[in-house]
Design goal:
6-stranded antiparallel β-sheet, globular
């Protein structure tokens, strides 16, 4: 089997299933997980690509990490997923045969798939709210509120992110290319809010104003930067899906009868003045 940029074939004791995996592809990546008998992986329903026949699919309420917990426990787990915009259900893929079996998942957008072993980052990863792709069964998918952020900016909900907890492998999908930065204690980095892909629990997240009025109006970068302060690790994505979708919508508008080609001098400013934003 050809070795991709990320490959894991190591066994260790832990709570979550210590699955083997390989990530394949460059700009359009997919994740191939190899399961031993009885091992399971959990994924969003829309991520599935293919599987060996001995891998059985079951739909569970929540993220499957609650095990035999009662209904209220499972309801709480499912509710956390609902807050971050996910489905109440996840799909569990379990190898029911002998030998090895594989299941593959694909990212819905062009970009990178980042594998993280949670026990190597302190047991918790904070990431953008739609980034979870798959995980070893036993990883909890929750919600993280950036409560100090001005909640009025985000519809009164605060800045909602995903919180992935456990000790096993989790796979998160990032848009475009991925950059990893290690921040020392007190060291800060300014990042476009949409480009913050993930960070470890020790990193402090805050918003700072991005310059004066001119840069707000003409820079196209929004009103605020995310300020990330160490200690910890930060992962930055070069092309968040919201930015890609915005460009696609703008391109569709320019070809949709407005007779304003891509090279228009006005561009987005024309939309602003014309009240189209």
């Amino acid at each position: 089997m050809s070795q991709g940029p990320w490959t894991h074939h190591h066994r260790s004791a832990g709570v979550a299933d210590d699955i083997d995996f390989e990530i394949k592809g460059q700009e359009l990546q997919f994740l191939e997980i190899e399961l031993d008998p009885g091992e399971s992986a959990v994924a969003e329903a829309g991520a599935f690509v293919w599987k060996d026949a001995s891998v059985q699919m079951t739909t569970v309420f929540g993220d499957g990490s609650a095990g035999d917990a009662g209904f209220m426990g499972k309801l709480l787990g499912a509710g956390k997923r609902l807050v971050t915009g996910e489905s109440l259900f996840t799909t569990v893929f379990t190898h029911q045969g002998g030998g090895k079996a594989k299941v593959a998942f694909g990212s819905p957008t062009p970009g990178s798939i980042l594998p993280i072993k949670l026990d190597q980052v302190g047991g918790t990863l904070i990431c953008q709210k739609d980034s979870f792709l798959a995980a070893a069964k036993g990883v909890s998918i929750g919600v993280h509120f950036q409560q100090r952020i001005m909640t009025g900016l985000f519809g009164g909900e605060g800045f909602i992110m995903q919180k992935l907890e456990g000790d096993g492998w989790v796979f998160v999908q990032m848009g475009g290319a991925l950059v990893e930065r290690e921040l020392k204690a007190g060291e800060s980095l300014h990042v476009d809010t949409g480009c913050v892909a993930a960070f470890t629990a020790g990193v402090d997240f805050d918003l700072v104003k991005a310059g004066g009025v001119k840069s707000m109006l003409f820079g196209g970068e929004g009103l605020f930067f995310a300020r990330l302060t160490g200690p910890g690790t930060v992962w930055i994505q070069s092309l968040p899906f919201s930015r890609l979708a915005g460009r696609m919508l703008a391109a569709a508008g320019s070809y949709g009868g407005q007779n304003r080609g891509e090279g228009s001098v006005l561009g987005g400013l024309g939309d602003l003045i014309g009240g189209n934003r």
